[in-house]
Design brief:
With about 150 residues, the chain is α/β, with parallel strands linked by helices. The protein has 7 helices and 4 strands, in the order αααβαβαβαβα. Helix 1 runs antiparallel to helix 2.
């Protein structure tokens, strides 16, 4: 960032700085999002699996939101390896299929619904879940509140 500011100035380099901050957010979730050949662990994902297993043992269903599809894929793989059942909605899932998955989740024993924030933050009624986890925080807290409201309806 210092190089960008020195070469272009803050205002002119602000887009590049924002991109770097986005990559830093991804690294904080799991380095595999940025580095395909990374084979180390991620303490955040490891703790997420442990926490999720405990929540499920206590009889709860979970909505898990993230901003990044790659993070969703990594979490889904880790949950599958741990025997945690999931449904997934990201931008590639057509609206008809989304509604089918929502109906299934609300009526079966699937443990976790994994959702990208932009594709599932509004318009879904997932009241069978009673725990909401945001894997990463969005720039605008109101977007997170809308996503959380998928479980907490009147």
């Amino acid at each position: 960032m210092d190089e960008i500011i020195a070469e272009e100035g803050f205002k002119k380099g602000s887009f590049k700085i924002l991109q770097l901050l986005g990559r830093l957010r991804q690294l904080c979730i799991d380095p595999r999002i940025i580095y395909e050949d990374y084979d180390g662990g991620s303490s955040k994902i490891e703790q997420l699996v442990t926490l999720t297993e405990e929540i499920i043992r206590n009889g709860h269903k979970i909505l898990l939101f993230t901003s990044y599809k790659t993070a969703l894929d990594i979490v889904n793989r880790e949950f599958t390896n741990a025997g945690i059942s999931t449904y997934v909605i990201d931008g590639s899932v057509p609206s008809k299929k989304r509604m089918e998955l929502v109906d299934k989740f609300n009526n079966d024993d699937t443990n976790v619904f994994l959702i990208t924030l932009k594709s599932g933050g509004t318009g879904l009624n997932l009241t069978s879940a009673d725990v909401v986890i945001h894997l990463d925080l969005w720039w605008n807290p109101q977007v997170e509140n809308q996503a959380t409201d998928r479980a907490h309806r009147i």
